[in-house]
From TrEMBL, chain A:
Protein name: Uncharacterized protein
Organism: Alcanivorax nanhaiticus
Upper classification of the organism: Bacteria, Pseudomonadati, Pseudomonadota, Gammaproteobacteria, Oceanospirillales
Pfam families, A to Z: Gluconate_2-dh3 (PF13618)
Superkingdom as given in the UniProt entry: Bacteria
Segments traversing the membrane: 23-45
Keywords assigned: Membrane, Transmembrane, Transmembrane helix
Claim: Transmembrane is one of the keywords in the record: yes
UniProtKB/TrEMBL annotation, chain B:
Gene Ontology molecular function terms on file: flavin adenine dinucleotide binding; oxidoreductase activity, acting on CH-OH group of donors
Coiled coil: none
Protein name per its UniProtKB record: GMC oxidoreductase family protein
Keywords, alphabetical: FAD, Flavoprotein, Oxidoreductase
Lineage start: Bacteria, Pseudomonadati, Pseudomonadota, Gammaproteobacteria, Oceanospirillales
Species, as recorded: Alcanivorax nanhaiticus
Domain FAD-dependent oxidoreductase 2 FAD-binding: 29-63
Residues of the Glucose-methanol-choline oxidoreductase N-terminal domain: 76-292
Amino acid sequence: MNSQSQARQIQRVWQQGLARRQFLKWGLGSVATVAAVAAGGFALLRRSPRDAVSRPGWAADLSDDEFHLFDRAREVLLPVAGTALVDSAAIPVVQNIQRTLNYLDPVTRKELGAGLGLLDNIAVFTHGCRFVDLELPEARQMLDRWGEGGVLQRTLATVLKQLVYSAYWQDPQTWQPVEFDGPVSDKWGLSYLGNAPLPGPLEVSAQETTV
Amino acid sequence: MSSPIMKASGLEVHQATDVTDSQITLEADVVVVGSGAGGAVAAYELARQGKRVIILEAGPYVPSKAFTEDFTDSLQTLYQDHGGQANSSGDLLVLQGACVGGSTVVNGCVCFRTPDFILQDWQRDFGLSELTEAELGPYFDEVERNLSVHDNGEHEIARHGQVIREGARKLGWSTKPLRRNIRQCGLTGHCLSGCKTERKQSMLVTYLPWAQAYGAEIYADTRVEKVLTEGGRASGVEAVVTGQDGIVVASLTVRAPRVVLAAGAVQTPVLLLKSGLANRSGQVGKNFACHPSLLVAARYPQPIYPWRGALLGVHIDEFMHPDKGGFILEDGGFGIVEMTMLAEPGTGEPFMEYMANARDLAGLVTLIHDHNVGTISWDGERKQIDYQLSEADFPSMKRAIKAAARLHLASGATEVYVPASDRRIIRSEDDIDDQVDSLENAPQHLRMVSYHPQGTCRMGADPLQSVVKANGETHDVAGLYVADASLLPTSIIVNPQITVYALATRIARQMA
């Protein structure tokens, strides 16, 4: 299925009755309602072997589905075979994502969760299983197509990628293979200059210069 | 008055952790809301003239020595909304400092005076006849001297700037060193995470300690919720003091006959809207512009190390005038996390291959003269930034991308990455039109960032078309002033910090 027809199908299924403007926003609250209804109807199809696995204790601020989505996205987005890059399994990617999400205000956090849930579940329509159960090449192709798709697809693909990418590359363990220097001031022994001296007496007089 | 005494380093700041009373009431001659470019300058100028000045800053106080030079960490600790402030469609990050010193702490140090053709627009279209180049020139001279503004020396033009300069020379495009407010640049490349060794001449190491030397008091963690008035005049503000855990520890009232709003072009209109003040014109929060910028990255056949050396070295002003394109290009360094946001080379292996070759990348920042088409609003619970690149500005954006691509190729790049949601790579001049002309002006297609929000309380002579007068006082409320980039009636194409410093100096002196 090409990206255009996929976009049309998604729009048909998910946007019925919803104002387009709502999809132009991060505000995806209405999607949560639709997703919940659809999830009920497609409960069988959306089952995943991962559902039987609970999230680890440290992931208390994520739902089980969110944990599985981010962990699968880590595998999809960060392949290192054939490179000198550090295996993402050695980096606390999902922990870092959780920390980022904890900075969001509650409303945005809820809407983002709904949107990412949509990304996970929508693959049921196109691939017969959730995103977390797609083979790696299929998952990557889906995200590539979504980057070319409608606003909603572009938004969700971009959000997922940015969360995963920044969560991986913020870890200092990933820097050495690409020769990124990281913090340098202390390493270089740069001196602290302190506060600048008070300015001298020269100044512009408002009375003299104002027309 | 006794001789001013200034700390050698750092500031004395009242913080939430110092609070012992749940209700605090203070009195001052002037209360300044915000400690960034406008607030710090206004506070210094007024304190120096003997006024009792109180500065209220919503963000935390983070001393320079505590800066980590880690961009992710800095976003979370120094930036508005922990680095997540965006427009309502989420495709434009609006990055502003939210700490003592404001955006001056995390900017790239670039200094431009307001272009004269912009001032002429203001004179012609907004009745700001007194804001001439001759009038503002002495103020520019003074703030530039105070902040050690200088042309980048050769050692401050990093490898990425050198290759870009060479490419521009081949194309015959006008290129100049950027001017920056910095002393003895440490060449760390970490400007956007704050300058740990106090070399960037941000408000944190200049006007704020200078204001304190003249008696100004600074309160961090203190968000102003309402401007107070009595008999149609400003009479103070109400604020809350909130700890880093998000718990409100005190309410704070400052009684003052003059209130200066300098919280930035997003927060200042929000505060006026929450207060229900100064909006006879209906223009508060309107006319938001932001210089939506792209960082166009390209791969070179030799190592560039875009994170090494001064962050910003040279700029191309060939196209600055609206008649010639209305945009500028600045060579820009970046770190490894920023790189992930620039390009979409493809999901999986293509992206990791792009990252694995990070050292071979260089970047060009595009800044366009956008129209004031956005709106800042407040729905009672949350602010909202509604801004989409206008159809009138989209051609400028495409011209800027094309120029950046041409320049990269002329500089020797082998691949130029269009910062879009889909995979767009330019390898030759023949690719440029195909890859850029097919871009859509639609949400989430381009990956835009703004460091320059402006225009939301615009200056003007007509009280029915503008919020403040040329002297910074609001048309509607005596004693209530605005002294930040909200003032700017149009976008100014260039980095606005010098414009704000100069206007804030002028406003404070006229106020006194």
